Every structure is written in C-alpha cells, then in structure tokens.
Task: inverse folding
C-alpha cells in the first residue's frame, strides 16, 4: 500500500507540465485564470496542439491515434491541465463518441471520423434527451424511418450542450416500436449541416446559452452513418455509461476551486478581520476539504484498480454523485464568501476585453453565476437520484 | 501508487476473518462481554498464536515488524466481529509507545510479553476536565530520592480494569496544559496507592477511573525522556486514531451488509421493503459514506507512518472527522432501517451502532477533529 506516485508517474507529470507551459496559448490561459468566457477557438486550437503532440485523445488506444495512457496517467494529465489553466477537451468528442466509434464503428467510419476528432476539425455534440425523455431516456420518440440507403429523422432533442458550435451530433433515435423501448433505438451520426436541422439556444438561469433545443425536420441521414446494428443503439449508449471514470468526479477542478475559495476567504473581510478567521465559515471550508480529500482517494482507488485491470470496485459508482455535490458546495461557499458583492448581475464582466470596474473583488462577478450554473451537475449525465437507483439495483441488488 | 495488499497481508486478513467468523459469533461476543474480565484469555491467546499480537512489535523483540497497514487490516477485521479484546490499547497504543520511547531493558521485558499474549496494557492519560486536549495533564510526578511519586486522577482509561500494567502520564514540571514537562511511567496495576474503578462502556468494552495517591516508583519506571513525552503521546494517539478509523470501516461494512440483507428479506405491504425507493436511496447513501470512510482510513493508515508531524496531525484529523461523521450516519440509519428491531438488544445491529458511537467519541469526535483541520487553515 503506497499513496505516492511512482518515479515514472512523476516524470510523466513533469513532461506534461512542461509541455502545457510551453504550448498553451496565453490568451486562453488568461481567460480561464480570470474566469472569462472561452471562445470555441480556444478549445479547437488547444485540441490541435495536443493532437500534434500525439495527446489528442488521452484514453484512446495508440492504434486509434490516442495517447494510450492508463487511467492514472490520464488523471495526472487532468490535474496538470486544470492547474495550468488549459481548457477541458470536449467530452462529447473525445470521451463519448470517439470510444463508441472505436469499439463499434466500421473501418470506414473509424478512418473518416477518428482523425477529425483528434485534430479538432470535428466538434461533436450529443442528441440524447428529449422533452419527454429525460431520466427515462429509453422512452425517446425522435423517429428515424428507413428510406432506401437513408434514414429520415424527425423529432426534437434537448439539453444539448454547445451544439451551436458543433459539426456533428450523435443521436439516439427510434427505429422500432415493436418491442421493449430499449430494443427499438439506433445510434446515428448526423452532420449538423444537413438541411432540416435547427438549433435554438435555451437561456439558462445564469443568463448563459450553452444549452440548446435541436429540431429535426425530415433530416436525411445515410444508413452508413449508423453505428453497429439497427435497434441496438441502447447497447452502445450504455457502453458509454460507466466506461469513463477519469474526469467524472472533477477532482482536479474542485481542488483548484477550493484553493481559490481559500484565497478569497483571506481577501474578504468580516468584523474587520479576514473572513477566514471567522470559525463558522472556516469550518465549512474545512468540511468540504475533508470531503474532497476522501473523494480524491476514492478516485485513486478506482483508477489504480482499472490500471491493474482489476475489476473496478463498486466505489466507482459514487464518483459522479460525490463529485457533483462537492463541486456545488465549493461554488456555493465561494458565492457566500463574497457577501453582498455576489449580488450584482454583471455577466458582461466575464466577456473577454471587458474593462469595467467590478463590484467587490475581481472574483465577485463570476461567483453567483458559477453557483447558479453548477446546479446542473447533479442533474446532467443521469441525475444523482438516477445514479442512486443504478447503485441500488446494480451494486446492492435491491 | 498501490492500494493492494501483499500476499502476507491478504493471508493475515483471511486467517483473522476466518477465526472471527468461526469462533467469535454474536453469541460468543455476548458471553465475553458479560464475563468478569470483559475479554477472553482464550481468544487473546489465540490472537497471540495467530501472530496478531506480535504483528507490529519490532523483530528484535521477537515481533513481526509490521506497519500501520498491517494494523489497519487487523482492526478492520476486529471491527467486523465487534471483538472486545483490548488489542487497541495493548498492541497498538502501549506497544507503540514502548517501541518508540522505551529503553532496551523495557522493550526486552515488555514487548515479547505483549506479543506472546501474557501482558495486557492500557494508557492512562486523559483526565477529568481535559476533554480531548492531549496536553491537559494535571497529574504530578515528583522526584523523590532517585525515584518518583505520582498523584492524580485519570478518567475513562480504555481497558484500564483489564491491564496488568499501565502507562501513566504525569507532570514532572510545568503547568496543566503545557506541552513541556509531561512524562510517562510504567506502573504495575497492583502498586500501592493505585485505585482502579472498572466499568463497562456503552459498547460492552471496559474502562476504568484510576486514582494515583502517592504512588512510589523506581527511576526505571520512567518511559522515555523526562518532561518530553508529549510528542510521543501524540504519536501514539494518532496511531490509535488510524486504527480506530480502520475498525470503524470494518463495523460499517458489516453493518451495511446486515442492513442490506434486512431490506431484502423483511416483508411489508406484500413484498420486501427494499423495493421502496426512499429506503434504497438511504442504503446507497450509507454505502457511499462507508466507501468514503474507507478511503480516509487508508489515508490515515498510510499517513500515520510519516515522520512529518504537521502532515500527520492534518491527515489523522481529516480521517477521524470524516470517519466519525460516516460512522454516525451509517449507525443511525442502520438502526432506522431495521425499524423496531434496530432498537432492541437482541439484534447485533444495535451493538454495531453503539460501537460506532463509542469510536466517534474516542480520542476526539468528528467536530473536534474538524476544528483541528479548520484551525490549520489559519496557518497555511
């Protein structure tokens, strides 16, 4: 039993750190450091830079063009890019559709799509949820009717993230209503430029528009763009669930946010003293730090097991639940630390190049917006209540 | 990074769990709890024969030179079985104190006896009014013609009524709550001037109030350097905390097993109660709490071996805080999910719950350790 990284892993960390320090574009780094909005190009450019180094897809096998890193290496990479203020790669491209294409795609699909994902030429988004199919995803109704060598797709997807920038969307569509709902779903890859697709942004509670409705109106999709067999899409979608443990707990991001929270608590004043000297507030920071430490070790237990190809223990299933709850607690405390200064709604302060004067400290304009924005984390990707249903059924056998 | 056990460690774990499953069932435990001694010399000797008592004793004194991870394995297994024998106080705390601070003569006379199962020991340190403050030592040790005379009162001394010998903290200088000036002494339970009022604790284990009235000791009763025992005591208590964290993980995992089994078999409204979502989610929360506690127990087990005192304080307090919170939650909810049966003496559930409650309080509860972690934020 040893909780230290090996010499080899430490050397890997140094290599990653040096590369990011040398190659991360300064404007991107500065936007992230100052909690400004990113441009899509920040993400695309960073993806291209990683790709040139052979690191375009940390978890993919080398044969598919990935870095071939083990789970612990990928965690180290995540820690390093988060600490350096580099953007997170697009989960939908790298962690979701990519692995599905690698596992179930045809050679032609693999040859066409994988390189374009790696270079960042293709930005992928996800078409899963529908207005009537949220937690009950299998009840989805978007239809794909077979017409010769095409499907014709009609319906509506929602809660789509960043689809306004996307080149492609992977969709779950209904191709049969004959058997159980799960047995009539297919997995389609759809070019966002196809006629009949309309993207309508949804304004969220923080005023942001990172989420969309997507409408499909007689959208023609070649049958060649189907993954695997018709009506087997649910299997491929399930493959994604639980496939990806690295990153799901967001531990490096939470550690960075906790560090910032402590800094803010030293800057803010209460009773003429630094806020951190207020024991009631300080105890709450200590509590979240303890919770986060426990989660980090749980994560390392999971990643080590995966690395050694031991069957991951049931502890893997708790990463999403605790990771989202702890992240939310940190954002909430950060807002609380700002006091009244968290109240002004100045979203323009997060635009790049804004030269106004913030109310309160430099950290204040983002504090409430991030708190509100991150309420989503216990809802998306299968709400935490759904996660508990899954643990109750799959792990506890209830 | 490696979270696995060695082959020897796995073997140790299997052997001990097998022994407990076979020889230390709930009925046997009840018998031991009701006995005069409050522990069974037979089981104690069996632990010696299995090598468990000598596990962390240095090789030079006939031990197996084990580390805190070995202790963790033992404590988790003892937790699963709710074992009452005074392993924590004898092997982990007193054995550790003697190995850390003892003279060669003390080590040679005491450690092999611990390993062999002939000697039970207890640390008499906490005093009335001290709560969890380790440096609150008002008991005095006055130098007297080459030896010492001890006076004072020690409270809730774990295994105090069972120990053949005590390690007693007392001041050779300074005021109560000074770090400097605290010394340790090895005292025979039958020494003149010692009063021991033994009693059971809430969990069925034993403790004692101990009074020292003009207890005369020879110079060689001193354990370690005079006046400089505080860091040694801190380290021993930290080792004890890491061990308790592992024990709590064992208790919680057994308690979760029992509760899950109950949800699957107890029928109401025409089917097992485990089909109700309110109970399923509670059970998942208990499972999560136990896994987080396991992570922290591992961190404490590894961290307690560190020579960096500041890092050790922080690690151990973080672990004790989270394990205490998890223990409270799992214990209370296990009772709740068992309904009326949960509040009876008949089921083992209430006994697990009581042990978890005692563990949370022992050496400082979750709030105390949260406060310590919190105050460290001021320093960094």
Result:
């Amino acid at each position: 039993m040893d909780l230290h990284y090996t010499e080899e892993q430490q050397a890997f960390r140094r290599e990653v750190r040096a590369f990011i320090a040398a190659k991360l574009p300064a404007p991107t780094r500065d936007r992230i450091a100052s909690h400004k909005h990113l441009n899509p190009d920040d993400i695309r450019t960073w993806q291209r830079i990683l790709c040139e180094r052979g690191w375009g897809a940390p978890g993919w096998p080398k044969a598919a063009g990935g870095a071939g890193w083990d789970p612990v290496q990928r965690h180290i990479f995540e820690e390093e890019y988060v600490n350096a203020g580099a953007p997170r790669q697009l989960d939908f491209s790298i962690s979701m559709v990519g692995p599905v294409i690698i596992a179930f795609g045809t050679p032609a699909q693999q040859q066409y799509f994988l390189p374009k994902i790696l270079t960042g030429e293709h930005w992928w988004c996800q078409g899963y949820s529908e207005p009537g199919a949220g937690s009950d995803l299998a009840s989805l109704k978007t239809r794909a009717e077979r017409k010769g060598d095409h499907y014709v797709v009609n319906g509506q997807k929602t809660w789509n993230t960043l689809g306004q920038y996307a080149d492609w969307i992977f969709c779950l569509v209904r191709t049969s209503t004959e058997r159980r709902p799960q047995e009539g779903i297919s997995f389609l890859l759809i070019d966002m430029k196809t006629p009949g697709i309309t993207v309508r942004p949804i304004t969220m509670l923080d005023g942001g528009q990172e989420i969309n409705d997507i409408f499909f109106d007689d959208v023609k999709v070649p049958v060649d763009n189907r993954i695997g067999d018709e009506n087997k899409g649910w299997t491929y979608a399930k493959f994604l669930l639980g496939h990806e443990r690295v990153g799901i707990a967001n531990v490096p991001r939470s550690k960075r946010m906790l560090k910032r929270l402590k800094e803010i608590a030293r800057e803010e004043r209460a009773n003429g003293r630094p806020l951190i000297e207020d024991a009631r507030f300080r105890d709450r920071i200590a509590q979240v730090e303890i919770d986060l430490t426990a989660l980090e070790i749980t994560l390392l237990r999971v990643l080590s097991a995966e690395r050694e190809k031991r069957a991951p223990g049931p502890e893997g299933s708790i990463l999403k639940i605790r990771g989202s709850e702890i992240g939310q607690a940190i954002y909430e405390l950060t807002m609380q630390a700002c006091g009244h200064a968290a109240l002004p709604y100045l979203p323009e302060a997060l635009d790049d190049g804004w030269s106004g004067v913030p109310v309160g400290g430099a950290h204040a304009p983002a504090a409430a917006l991030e708190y509100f924005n991150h309420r989503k984390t216990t809802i998306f990707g299968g709400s935490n209540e759904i996660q508990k249903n899954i643990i109750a059924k799959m792990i506890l056998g209830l | 990074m490696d979270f696995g056990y060695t082959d020897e460690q796995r073997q140790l774990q299997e052997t001990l769990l097998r022994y407990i499953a076979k020889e230390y069932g709930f009925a046997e435990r009840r018998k031991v709890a009701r006995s005069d001694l409050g522990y069974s010399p037979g089981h104690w000797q069996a632990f010696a024969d299995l090598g468990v008592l000598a596990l962390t004793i240095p090789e030079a004194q006939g031990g197996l030179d084990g580390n805190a991870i070995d202790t963790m394995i033992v404590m988790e297994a003892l937790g699963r079985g709710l074992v009452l024998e005074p392993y924590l106080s004898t092997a982990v705390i007193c054995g550790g104190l003697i190995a850390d601070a003892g003279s060669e003569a003390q080590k040679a006379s005491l450690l092999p006896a611990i390993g062999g199962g002939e000697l039970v020991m207890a640390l008499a340190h906490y005093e009335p009014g001290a709560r969890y403050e380790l440096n609150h030592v008002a008991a005095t040790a006055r130098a007297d013609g080459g030896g010492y005379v001890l006076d004072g009162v020690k409270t809730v001394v774990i295994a105090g009524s069972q120990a053949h010998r005590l390690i007693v903290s007392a001041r050779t200088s300074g005021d109560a709550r000074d770090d400097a000036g605290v010394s340790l002494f090895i005292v025979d339970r039958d020494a003149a001037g010692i009063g021991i009022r033994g009693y059971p604790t809430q969990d069925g284990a034993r403790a004692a109030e101990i009074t020292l009235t003009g207890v005369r000791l020879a110079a060689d009763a001193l354990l370690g350097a005079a006046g400089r025992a505080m860091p040694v005591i801190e380290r021993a208590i930290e080792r004890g905390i890491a061990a308790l964290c592992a024990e709590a993980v064992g208790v919680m995992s057994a308690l979760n097993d029992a509760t899950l089994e109950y949800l699957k078999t107890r029928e109401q409204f025409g089917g097992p109660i485990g089909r109700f979502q309110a109970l399923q989610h509670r059970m998942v929360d208990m499972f999560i709490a136990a896994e987080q506690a396991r992570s922290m127990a591992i961190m404490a087990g590894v961290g307690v071996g560190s020579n960096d005192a500041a890092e050790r304080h922080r690690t151990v307090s973080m672990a004790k805080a989270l394990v205490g919170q998890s223990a409270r939650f799992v214990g209370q909810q296990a009772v709740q999910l068992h309904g009326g049966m949960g509040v009876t003496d008949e089921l083992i559930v209430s006994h697990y719950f009581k042990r978890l409650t005692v563990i949370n309080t022992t050496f400082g509860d979750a709030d105390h350790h949260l406060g310590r972690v919190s105050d460290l934020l001021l320093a960094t």
Remarks:
- The mean pLDDT of chain B is 97.
- Residues 123-227 of chain B form a domain with the Butyryl-CoA Dehydrogenase, subunit A; domain 2 fold (CATH 2.40.110.10).
- The first strand of chain B starts at residue 121 and ends at 124.
- Residues 150 and 214 of chain B are 5 Å apart (CA to CA).
